[in-house]
Every structure is written in C-alpha cells, then in structure tokens.
Amino acid sequence: MIEFMHITSLDSALSILRSGHFHPVRGTLADAGLNGLQSGRIGWNEQYFTGIGVRLFFEWSGPVEIGPGSAPNVLFDQMPHRVFVPAGTEQYLRLTGFRAAALTWQQRRFKIPWYCFGPARRERARRRAMVQLQAEIDSIVETKPYISVIP
C-alpha cells in the first residue's frame, strides 16, 4: 500500500470530494492523471509546501510499476520525485485525508447573507459558513471514498 498526497486549490479539492472524480487539467495528453508526492523522498521539502492550498491524502492499494507509464488502474512510481495515477483509473485509489493551509481558508470567499450588515455580523456569518464547509469535508473524508481519475 502506498500513501501519497496531492496539492491543489480549495475549489478543485471540493470538486474531487463532492464528485468522487479527479479531472486532469489536460486530459488528452500523455501526462494526464493525478500526480502525487511521497513524504521522505528526494525533492520533498515540507517547508516548501507550507501555506499552500489544500493537501489531499490518498492511499493506493493496487498494482505498482516503477517508471513512467499510462495504463489505467496502475500507480507508476517515478522515483524519486513523484507517483502518478493515469487518467482512466477507476479503482484502488482512496481519499484518506484533507488539510487546508490557514491562508487558504482566509482567502476563501463565502456567500454572506444580504442581511448581515456590519463587520461583526459579516465575520460571524463567514465563520459559520466555514464551519459548515469543514463539517461537510470531514463527513466525506471520514468515509474514505474511492476516487476515479477520469479523462
């Protein structure tokens, strides 16, 4: 079993959580898929990733091959810098964790009801929306859903 993380934006992370699908940005290219980082590998620098976006943590329970490749339902361990799950993968990939940087939450724009006048009310409404979103995220992550990588 291989554990790795993928760093993305909050909006992309929410899309993955809610739909159960990861959509590569360029789904038609040879490099279309989910790129991940494994802790402790060369090129991994925890300090570099501090304060950046959202970290999604995954667990892979399927076949692993060393080197490049694009066959679906196989994790390609491209030592030392990344792991790669190609588009078309529909099994073996589970989402196990979610961690957002504080700055990511601060930059998030929440819909505030029109009747929340004044800074104090707006801030309370913002915090309430943030707590509700975090509860939704926690309830999804708690189930450790399988994620597919679709082209």
Keywords:
single chain, 151 residues, 4-stranded mixed beta sheet, 3-stranded antiparallel beta sheet
The largest sheet, given as strand count, sense and whether it forms a barrel, is: 4 strands, mixed
As residue ranges, the low-confidence spans are: none
Query: Alpha-carbon distance between the termini?
Result: 24 Å
* Total count of domains: 1
Counting helices, strands and paired strands, the structural category is: alpha/beta
The tally of beta strands, per DSSP, is: 9
Q: How is the quaternary structure best described?
A: single chain
Count of helical stretches: 4
Helix and strand run: EHEEHEEEEEHHE
What's the average pLDDT?
88
Rg is 17 Å
Range of helix content: 25-40%
| 3D shape | elongated
Give the amount of beta strand, in percent: 25-35%
As laid out across the biggest beta sheet, the strand order is 3-7-6-5
Protein name: DUF4433 domain-containing protein
Organism: Pelagibacterium lacus
Question: What does this molecule look like?
Answer:
With 151 residues, the chain is an alpha/beta fold. It has one domain. Helix content is 29%, strand content 28%. The protein has four helices and nine strands, in the order βαββαβββββααβ. The protein has helices spanning 10-19, 46-49, 102-107, 119-142; strands at 2-8, 21-22, 33-36, 54-60, 64-66, 75-78, 82-86, 93-100, 148-149. The strands form three sheets. A four-stranded mixed beta sheet has the order 3-7-6-5, with no helix packed on it. It has a three-stranded antiparallel beta sheet with strand order 1-4-8. A two-stranded parallel sheet has the order 2-9. The protein is elongated. It starts with a strand and ends with a strand. The mean pLDDT is 88.
